[in-house]
Amino acid sequence: MLRLGSIILLTWLAPTLAFAHVGVGETGGFAHGLAHPLGGLDHVLAMVAVGLIAAQLGGRAVWLVPASFIAMMVAGGALGMAGVGLPFVEVAIGLSVVVLGLVLALGLNLPVAAAMALVGFFAIFHGHAHGAEMPETASGLAYGSGFVLATALLHVAGIALGLAIGRAGAGDRLPIARFAGVAMSVAGLALLGGLI
């Protein structure tokens, strides 16, 4: 039963990359906003990585790191909605997967403020990409609310995964987290190279 559940979860999380970015697909309403972050592998991996990093750091970082991502993502979304351009948005989003994966792969124990700044920097680009798609109608607020909730849920999934890894035992914790980070970084490089 656990295996079937894992397959279903992986199938659900295996998104179509193209639907997560500017100008593609339906963008109005809460349900679309909720589904939108799940529509791109780069976004799913980055959001889960933020949660994993927060869990790895522990303490106040468990809520401060994801909260800084969400706050800066909202700011980036506002820039996108206002039509303010940012250079290299797609490249920065791909790099976020690589860099956040490397933080995990290398087992970096960043100070909480540094982790908040790092994820906040990348969040601006994630938010901008989606904010540029938010309609300037009443449904834009609903879409934005859905997008924020989906992002928070992906962070919670990463935190839960990180805490589960921690419960696996002190000896196993680091290799599992490092493997996840390596896999994320490789996926990020493949995304940047247009291979996936």
Report what the structure shows.
The protein is mainly alpha-helical and 196 residues long. The protein has one domain (40-192). It has helices at 2-13, 30-35, 41-57, 61-81, 89-105, 112-131, 138-167, 170-192. The protein is globular and about 45 Å long. Mean pLDDT is 82; it is low at 1-27.
Estimate the global geometry from the Cα principal axes. Answer: globular
Catalogue the unreliable spans: 1-27
Number of helices: 8
* C-alpha-based Rg, rounded: 16 Å
Q: What structural class do helix, strand and pairing data support? A: mainly alpha
**What do the pLDDT scores average to?**
82
Helix content: over 70%
From the structure above, extract its key features.
mainly alpha; about 200 residues; disordered N terminus
Outline the secondary-structure elements.
Layout: H1 2-13, H2 30-35, H3 41-57, H4 61-81, H5 89-105, H6 112-131, H7 138-167, H8 170-192
Q: Short description, anyone?
A:
Helices cover 74% and strands 0% of the residues.
